[in-house]
């Protein structure tokens, strides 16, 4: 770096440029090996509905949790495209663990997005050396938290539901608004270690899908928050607010991976069936023209989502590398591109995971087959925020150029 502008940008964003072929090949291979391990007992683990401690260790040992961290501090030094591909690959076999990893990437990215410049190195070193998996407790539509000044720190009380990774996360990222004092009204980012005094993890996550995402309820009983636990405070700076397009992009890749996984399992089931329907002109089930037509439609639509996701992943890398040079216009363009992906990935994955049963026949509905896992996962997570509002967001921008106000959903 020789210019002042380049120095400033580098100080703001640890990510520069785009992933090359060697990087993508390396991390794709790592993710595929982890996915193969997860696939061996994905259905059994889903039904056991236990906290995924073993799965989180698998992610750490493979190096996936430090993939995005700066190489100068011991991290993988990779790009967002590599991280998002890893999420997509894991989602093909175990979308719960893919969710854990994707949320970890976004939560830990707040070191670069939110933490003061002179504190980032210590946060990175603690996270990398401790092999932290970052969970969160940030559900914005469940704001029942009070953060009140207490000496040089704060006291945290209240309850948060849908806290992904909280059951196994080494670090728990918490959002709360300061109630009074010099920081009154500011949106704080607090990071507490697993087992911190006064933090109660309620192991009650028993939903239709994403059962191993450890998205528990967390209760805070007069929790002491020291200055060292405060990552930073939110602002309306475009760079700092990339966390929301980032998590929505994780969703798009998660949903695409689920659709791809459903298609792959359905293909194996279809090819294994010996006989076609008695009215069919074909001898083998896979040769039936209606079966082939259905697969043709679902495969083509999924491929279109993949092309859009690949483009959005690269756009995110290009945008976040701008650092201080990032403008509101850059962020808005990225937001709309990712919202478009959210619409088509959500609708396509739900349809694919549902209609593959038509292509595989009644025997595929047996509990032992587990084809339902893909549908249960996408049906559950796609409810995170209403996709209809993403459609309105994209449509309004197309017609009038308007961009939605920045929030933890836009």
UniProtKB/TrEMBL annotation:
InterPro entries: Acyl-CoA_DH_C, Acyl-CoA_Oxase/DH_mid-dom_sf, AcylCo_DH-like_C, AcylCoA_DH/ox_N, AcylCoA_DH/ox_N_sf, AcylCoA_DH/oxidase_NM_dom_sf. The keyword Oxidoreductase applies. One of its GO terms (molecular function) is 3-methylbutanoyl-CoA dehydrogenase activity. Residues 30-130 form the Acyl-CoA dehydrogenase/oxidase N-terminal domain. Residues 250-385 form the Acyl-CoA dehydrogenase C-terminal domain. The keyword Repeat does not apply. GO terms for biological process: L-leucine catabolic process. Pfam families: Acyl-CoA_dh_2, Acyl-CoA_dh_N. Keywords: Oxidoreductase. It comes from the Bacteria. PANTHER family: ACYL-COA DEHYDROGENASE, ISOVALERYL-COA DEHYDROGENASE, MITOCHONDRIAL-RELATED. This is Alkylation response protein AidB-like acyl-CoA dehydrogenase. It comes from Diaminobutyricimonas aerilata.
């Amino acid at each position: 770096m020789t210019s002042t502008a380049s120095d400033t940008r580098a100080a703001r964003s640890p990510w520069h440029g785009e992933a090359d072929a060697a990087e993508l090949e390396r991390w794709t291979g790592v993710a595929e090996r982890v996915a193969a391990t997860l696939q061996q007992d994905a259905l059994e683990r889903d039904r056991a509905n236990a906290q995924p401690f073993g799965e989180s260790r698998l992610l750490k040992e493979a190096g996936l949790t430090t993939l995005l961290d700066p190489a100068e501090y011991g991290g993988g030094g990779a790009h967002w495209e590599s991280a998002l591909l890893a999420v997509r690959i894991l989602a093909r076999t175990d979308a719960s663990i893919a969710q854990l990893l994707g949320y970890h990437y976004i939560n830990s990215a707040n070191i670069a997005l939110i933490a003061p410049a002179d504190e980032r190195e210590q946060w990175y070193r603690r996270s990398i050396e401790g092999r932290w998996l970052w969970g969160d407790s940030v559900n914005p539509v469940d704001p029942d938290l009070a953060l009140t000044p207490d000496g040089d720190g704060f006291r945290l009380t209240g309850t948060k539901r849908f806290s992904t990774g909280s059951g196994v996360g080494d670090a728990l990222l918490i959002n709360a608004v300061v109630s009074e004092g010099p920081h009154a009204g500011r949106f704080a980012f607090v990071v507490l270690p697993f087992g911190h005094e006064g933090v109660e993890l309620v192991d009650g996550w028993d939903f239709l899908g994403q059962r191993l995402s450890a998205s528990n309820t967390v209760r805070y009983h007069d929790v002491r928050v020291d200055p060292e636990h405060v990552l930073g405070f939110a602002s309306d700076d475009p760079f700092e607010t990339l966390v929301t397009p980032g998590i929505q992009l994780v969703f798009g890749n998660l949903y695409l991976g689920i659709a791809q996984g459903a298609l792959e399992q359905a293909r194996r089931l279809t090819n294994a069936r010996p006989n076609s329907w008695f009215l069919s002109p074909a001898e083998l089930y896979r040769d039936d023209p209606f079966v082939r037509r259905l697969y043709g439609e679902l495969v083509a639509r999924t491929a279109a989502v993949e092309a859009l996701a690949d483009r959005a992943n690269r756009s995110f890398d290009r945008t976040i590398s701008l650092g201080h040079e990032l403008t509101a216009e850059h962020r808005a363009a990225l937001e709309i591109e990712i919202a478009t992906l959210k619409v088509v990935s959500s609708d396509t994955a739900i349809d694919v995971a549902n209609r593959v049963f038509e292509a595989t026949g009644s025997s595929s509905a047996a509990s032992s087959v587990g084809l339902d896992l893909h549908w249960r996962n996408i049906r559950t997570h796609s409810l995170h925020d209403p996709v209809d509002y993403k459609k309105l967001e994209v449509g309004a921008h197309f017609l009038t150029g308007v961009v939605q106000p920045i929030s933890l959903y836009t």
